[in-house]
Amino acid sequence: MREILPFILCLIAGLSTLLGSLFIFIKGNKNNIIKCALAFASGVMLSVSIFDLIPESLTMFQSTNKNSIFFSITIFITIGLTIPLFIDKILPDKINQSSKLYKLGIFTMIAIIIHNIPEGIATYISSETNIKLGISITIAIAMHNIPEGISIAMPVYYATKNKKKAIGLTFISGMSEPLGAFLAFIFLKPIINNSIMGALFAIIAGIMTYISTIELLPAALQYKEKKKTIISFLIGILFMYVNHMLSY
Questions:
Q1: Residue 25 is assigned to a structural domain of this protein
Q2: Whole-angstrom Cα distance, residue 41 to residue 174?
Q3: Helices (H), 184-225
Q4: Cβ(207)–Cβ(115) below 8 Å
């Protein structure tokens, strides 16, 4: 049972992403829902990068190489910032707004999958060595996976009007969390170290910062009543900051 528990925790953390897809059932003004959801998700992603991923990367690099921490983090964040540019070439914009929303949902899903795999690795390794720590990490991850689910499901649903597709793509992104645990168990556990994890967290911080500031927030600001957009963005940051403080 003790060997299975880390996988169960990763599965719970991943499935929590699906809770975010429930927001597609909220009825109301379409434009208000879209802009608030995108702005909120933007705040969440930026907050995760600033309050979680970068500090975690810093901690990992400090334990292995204290002489070039700033240089290492800067290099890997820059790599993360450039990765979405290549993804963007694969998913070009089309003319109508629905296509742009769909592209944004797919773009976000890819970023979250890339984010969830090393997160699943870290959760598995932490849970295997200290189950109480693993449970705490799982709760914290579950809390920030919910708004990540929103950032995928909402644009996909409003672009396609297909609830099954929105929920399905959200589910796929969530399952990358236990996939990370599986990869850690089968392949990575003997070779994974703090330097590798530090690099991964810094790259992911770059990817999520790009999507937050270059994709999600500008898309939300295209709609009228920008005051609501800014408030939703700040609520997203505050939500994740409070979540971060409660998890420590």
A1: no
A2: 16
A3: 194-210, 217-221
A4: yes
Q: Is residue 104 situated within a structural domain?
A: yes
- Residue 24 belongs to a domain: no
Residue 106 CA: distances (Å) to CA of 21, 81, 151, 182, 243: 14, 17, 10, 24, 26
CA distance 11 to 236: 24
> Can you give the residue range of the structural domain that contains 86?
5-18+30-246
Cα-Cα end-to-end distance for the chain = 27
Domain total in the chain: 1
Contact 43, 232 (CB under 8 A): yes
> What is the pLDDT, as a whole number, of residue 95?
44
> Is 108 domain-assigned?
yes
pLDDT tens, residue order, the chain (248 aa)? 566 888 888 999 899 999 989 888 888 777 788 888 888 888 988 888 888 888 888 888 887 766 678 888 999 999 989 988 877 776 555 545 567 788 888 888 888 888 888 888 878 877 776 777 677 778 777 877 888 888 899 889 988 889 999 999 999 999 999 998 898 888 877 777 888 888 888 888 888 898 889 888 888 888 877 888 999 999 988 888 887 777 65
How many residues belong to the chain? 248
CB atoms within 10 A of CB 135: 16
Whole-angstrom Cα distance, residue 119 to residue 100?
28
Compute the distance between CA of residue 199 and CA of residue 209 in angstroms, rounded to an integer. 15
**CA distance readout (Å), 3 to 8, 37, 133, 143, 211:** 10, 38, 15, 24, 36
